[in-house]
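ugh ok fine here u go
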Amino acid sequence: MSEGLFFVEEAAAMTGARVYRASGFTAGEISSVSVDSRKVLPGGLFVPLKGEKTDGHLYIADAFSRGCSISLTDREYWESHKTELEAEARKFRCAFIVVDSALTALRTLAARHLAKFGAFRVGITGSSGKTTTKEIAGAILRQAGPAFMNEGNLNSDIGLPLSVFGMRGSPYFALFEMGMNRVGEMDILVDIVRPQAGLITNIGSAHIGMLGSRQAIAVEKKKLFQALAPGQRAYMYEGESFGAFLTEGILADPAFYGETSTPGFQGAMDLGLDGFTLFLDGEKLRFPLPGIFNLRNALGAISLCGGLGVGARAIRQGLEAVAPLFGRGEIVRGDVTFVRDCYNANPQSMRSAMDFIESLAWDGRKVAVLGSMKELGAYCVEEHGKIGRRAAVCGFAAVFLFGEEMEEAFRVLGEEGFRGTSGWFTDFGELYRAVEAFLVSGDIVLVKGSRGMELERLPQEFSGRGKTGKTGAVHV
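structure:
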């Protein structure tokens, strides 16, 4: 198979488009796809998307100037800017593929590219834990044969199709994390992936502000299972409260995972920050990610991969080889130890993180720096209040709260009679100075918040001042 993605005429035929070529245009094959004009490559295709603040069509000339030679364009934009677009094409000797919608065309091209491969396609979704479960399953599958998975959390209706174009060679497995924050997004994702197995980690309240209720979230997540055919498997945690709803009326075979239902699992020994010793199929192995939530993510991956025919040895090797992603529970060790989990936050993951720190055997003081949780809508005040209530009884010596939404958590923290040091901040500099003044050698600090709060800056600042040293990684 060619290392290119498709030829220009082929892409046009796939999307029902027509092609405009300037004189001197010679490129025939598309080798990459980008929606960012600053990241285009020679031989690449630029996809201009309309956003809330700008329109990618305004950056077509920039993409051409950086070596890209082909661009999609919405038909409506082409017809209203034809003269200037043709001039740009002549100037750079480039071509346009004129489509009804660049976003729809992006998804169509991704689906057609994925369909070229004979890989077994797996979809993973859930309110929390889906990225970690995907990474664990990917580590296992790569022990069994060539496997592809979407990078990081490129899991949206734009990110997932972009990730598909990274598929090359002949992977035996294709593993996709599938995220959604609005009604209908999961329909788009399953239409691209056409999964042959699916796993839902849990139904929580992430993005509840966009969807309105956990029931509505479950309806959207269930679409992964509804896309599966008879004889295919739909995996979920054995204790999932929405389990009956998720399996009702689906054609696939329900398959549960967990402490009592994952085949071959014989127990685990908790090693605190160092993860677990797992007993699996009569063998002992080291799984490096700590916390009961990560144990359950591992059990989901074990059940999924075992159901795909992966052998016990490959499963053990994959579990031991797991490495977490940036910002997803890294441990920064030193005089002060930071547990940095700043990539995302929702009520379930926030509580799980605090539960983990509370259960951890630690000689020094325990400190929490908690940032706002986003996309909670009408539930915002209630859920932040619950975080304050939980933080008050976790045994923290100090709780520092950051972000406007955390005002309610601070109020409840005081209402609950928290007797440690506490503070609420909306300015990062003030937060930093308060935390710095409080910490002493031997403390452990949980740093948890939604991505937009950028709380990863905190341990980085202290690292620069010699407060911390060696960096490891976990997920909370």
